[in-house]
Amino acid sequence: MRIQDFKNKDIHELVDLQARLVSANEKLNAVVSFCDVDAQIKDYKMKEDAPLFGTPVVLKDNISTKGVRTTASSRILDNYVPFYDATVVKKLRDAGAIFTCKSAMDELGMGGTGLNAYTGKVNNPYDLERITGGSSSGSAALVAAGLTPLAIGTDTGDSVRKPAAYCGIVGVKPTYGRISRYGVIPYASSLDHVGYFTTNIEDAALALEVMAGRDDQDMTSSYKEVEAYASLLNGDLKGKKIGIITNVIDAIVDPRFRPSFDAFTKKLEEKGTILEMVTIDQDLMNALLPTYFIISNAEATANHSNLDGIRFGMREPGEDLNEIMINSRTKGFSSDVRNRFVIGSYSLFVENQDKIFRKAQKVRRVIVEAVDEALKNYDVLLAPAAGTLAPKPDDSYGEDLNNTFMVAENHMLLGNFSGYPSITVPYDMVDGMPVAINLLARAFDEQTMFNVAKGIEDVTGLAGITKEDF
Amino acid sequence: MEKNKAYFRKLANQIMIDLSDDEIEILQKEFEVTLRKMDLLDKINTDDVKEMVYPFELETHFLREDEIENVISQQEALENAPEVKDGQILVPKVVK
């Protein structure tokens, strides 16, 4: 499914698509709330030349929508209905989008599996037993199932790019500050990005044009001019210099990956791409996950201190204010999220700040300097987006300390630490499941990122691929 | 310092949450793994390195003119409040 499919189409056909979405959700469990498509069609006044004319769009459930429940898949926000739209919602609507649903996610964005939504596990369209990855789980599943051409997510640690890999679609995390985060329920403010999913690069380029731009209501939003990414798209790979991150290749132990990846890179070389291996200091790669864990949990603890059941959200009874807050927060958050808050809080104690929190912030800078050094001679850095096929819930997926988990499953954090643009693109199918690569480009150089991704898409022939059983 | 159940319960209560005994056991195990992960940071030399608080140090926010903007109405502010009385959010008596 592509954005182009909705050009010159009767928007009333979206009613049928919505019915299909409702039906498919019984299998996918990807939706928290359905939007009123009939009402949007009735009020629709867009002209046919609008960039997203009649295009159905899915929003992750941490994106504020006026009058539509926005829970971030957390019990504590189960009854929360924003009275305003996030900036990205306004921009999409002004471009012609029609919103079909709010998609399920790992609670408050804190997870990478799609197992920790208040509405339950989100199922991978390619194998319902497998996970989608997360935290933008529902958005990924719905694009991969051919139920929407565009779904919005957020990416704090790889929460768009990992589910894109597991579900075989395009996942974009633009440069930090490129898309406004106003109205997006935060997780970790120094790492949070709005990102999105499409089935092809042309749509990805167009979607960024629509959503990007300065917003005074997001103090981190950039003044950089938004380029005409779609019309400037050029997939010619000849002479493009790509650095392949060896640390990631070396960390992947699944024997099914290598033949497929080698065949893929050979095709790139045949198109004139200059591929070189580039190695980042292994100690820095090993430090990625702990650095992320410290910074993200600390920021999350602070950001979510306002979720207490007093001014909004689910309130539990209590004898006094303190008891109400403790009861509301205890019942309102899952065990996993509460644990993360405790660890985040621990790192912010005065006696731990230098040793833990500030140390992590310093390591972050050293890591980003290493990324700059690695990117110096290349248009983009490339690595497999994941070290395994989408796992099943019982597969060993714990946060242990082996190299596969620490590096192969977490290297996309480089994009969050640096803020640099990054994209996941599927390149093959292995045992019936999609596998993908990830690109990392220089700050605000989304055009080069899209161009290389387009070249890759031309090589793989996987543009527009979805699982058509839904 | 040995981190027993009481220690973790105190940590949790400080941020206004509670944990069951079972949850604390899980947290204790996670905490051990977390501390081992944190040790990996010690391998990185950060002498004379400044903390990276945000990705970019470009100036994107400024003091604005002291003019009223982006105001929400009282009705909007109270729309999601669990209990409201006389235009205010209602909570149990704080001063007794």
Automatic annotation (TrEMBL), chain A:
Classification via PANTHER family: GLUTAMYL-TRNA(GLN) AMIDOTRANSFERASE SUBUNIT A, TRANSAMIDASE
InterPro entries: Amidase, Amidase_CS, Amidase_dom, AS_sf
Gene3D superfamilies tied to this protein: Amidase signature (AS) domain
Keywords in alphabetical order: Transferase
One Pfam family of this chain: Amidase
PROSITE patterns reported in the protein's UniProt record: AMIDASES
SUPFAM superfamilies: Amidase signature (AS) enzymes
Protein name: Aspartyl-tRNA(Asn)/glutamyl-tRNA(Gln) amidotransferase subunit A
Gene Ontology molecular function, alphabetical: transferase activity
Domain Amidase span(s) in chain numbering: 18-449
Source species: Breznakia blatticola
Automatic annotation (TrEMBL), chain B:
Biological processes, Gene Ontology terms: glutaminyl-tRNAGln biosynthesis via transamidation; regulation of translational fidelity; translation
InterPro entries linked: Asp/Glu-ADT_sf_sub_c, GatC
GO molecular function, one term: ATP binding
Pfam families: GatC
Catalyzed reaction equations: L-glutamyl-tRNA(Gln) + L-glutamine + ATP + H2O = L-glutaminyl-tRNA(Gln) + L-glutamate + ADP + phosphate + H(+); L-aspartyl-tRNA(Asn) + L-glutamine + ATP + H2O = L-asparaginyl-tRNA(Asn) + L-glutamate + ADP + phosphate + 2 H(+)
Coiled-coil region list: none
Keywords per UniProt: ATP-binding, Ligase, Nucleotide-binding, Protein biosynthesis, Transferase
Entry's EC annotation: 6.3.5.-
Family: Belongs to the GatC family.
Function: Allows the formation of correctly charged Asn-tRNA(Asn) or Gln-tRNA(Gln) through the transamidation of misacylated Asp-tRNA(Asn) or Glu-tRNA(Gln) in organisms which lack either or both of asparaginyl-tRNA or glutaminyl-tRNA synthetases. The reaction takes place in the presence of glutamine and ATP through an activated phospho-Asp-tRNA(Asn) or phospho-Glu-tRNA(Gln).
Subunit structure: Heterotrimer of A, B and C subunits.
Protein name per UniProt: Aspartyl/glutamyl-tRNA(Asn/Gln) amidotransferase subunit C
Source organism per UniProt: Breznakia blatticola
